[in-house]
Amino acid sequence: MDGIHDLGGKHGFGKVQTEADEVAFPERWQGAVFTMVNSLFFSGVAHNADHFRHAIERIDPVSYLNDGYYGRWLGGLETLLVEADRVSQADINERAITLGAAADGRIAARPNPQPDVFPAEAAAANAQASEDMPPSAHRDVEQAPRFAVDETVRTITTSVPGHTRLPAYARGAPGKIVAWHGAWVYPDSNAHGQGEQPQHLYTVAFSGADLWGSGGDSGLEVCLDLFEPYLLKG
């Protein structure tokens, strides 16, 4: 989906700033959010990582830019709790005000009034898979890969309404396959309860000029791991 979350490759945001000796949770609330998000998976509110990622993508755009990494997690957490009917947005707001939040403060959560309901059978399959399978999204499939290493390809140009791992800046760009990784769970279907639908995964190399034109860094090469449905014959 198109949204403020798709910041990769966009101009004006500068370099990623890193901190020396950075700790995992500089503030206590961040660790609490981390714990709560993990509890979503055990309680059946978040059905898989792709389901949770899509909830983060849908939070208030201003909050996405201003609330930081775990602030985004908190917005996604609240979104899923409301959509799962475990708590209401009014209950969350009332509790926040009790703890000192402003009554007219910005709310990050953006639950869908008619959520993309995760089918019960898909939820059960995800729960069973978490018990039966090793902690990996790699899957064995009978279908042979459509593309080969060193083959020239082009990415699709269309956006999708739901979750996807194809960044907007790489749409419609020519590239060269430099590695094939076998088949992996397809995030575009897995996020919405449509099954794992494993797809072949490739590393595709793009030149900076093909992604950003002549204004890109000279000699720059960007490698992206992309699923087969994102690719067309070059």
Q: Tell me the name of the CATH class of the largest domain.
A: Mainly Beta
How many domains, in number, for the residues?
Answer: 2
**CATH topology group of the largest domain:** SH3 type barrels
Rg for CA atoms:
20 Å
Let me know the largest β-sheet. Answer: 6 strands, antiparallel
**Name given to the CATH architecture of the largest domain:** Roll
Oligomer classification: single chain
Work out the strand percent: 15-25%
Reading the helices and strands in chain order gives HHHHHHEEEHEHEE
Determine the structural class based on helices, strands and strand pairing: alpha+beta
Helical amount: 25-40%
How many runs of DSSP E, i.e. beta strands? 6
What are the segments in which pLDDT stays under 50 over at least 5 consecutive residues? none
Basic shape: globular
Count of DSSP H/I helices: 8
Q: Please, what is the average pLDDT?
A: 91
N- to C-terminal distance:
24 Å
